[in-house]
Specification:
Bound molecules: zinc ion
CATH class: Mainly Beta
Strand content: 35-45%
CATH architecture: Single Sheet
Distance between the termini: 35 Å
Strand order of the largest sheet: 3-4-5
Number of strands: 5
Number of domains: 1
Low-confidence stretches: none
Radius of gyration: 11 Å
Number of helices: 0
Structural class: mainly beta
């Protein structure tokens, strides 16, 4: 299945091909390298993310 989202950091359109994507999964934006945690997914494969703050 294809999953789609927009990176909250750089507004890049992200397309992921995964067997499954669940809330709490972590994905990385290929454009800016930001680590994103999946918060919501709908039946069409559109999902929302929040930026994971990296520990320094
Ligand atoms: Zn990005």
């Amino acid at each position: 299945m294809d999953y789609h989202t927009m990176c909250p950091e750089c507004k890049n359109e992200l397309n992921l091909e995964r067997d499954a994507l669940v809330k709490g999964d972590v994905v990385e934006c290929e454009q800016c390298g930001m680590t994103l945690e999946v918060t919501e997914i709908d039946a069409q494969g559109n999902f929302n993310t929040v930026i994971v703050e990296e520990e320094k």
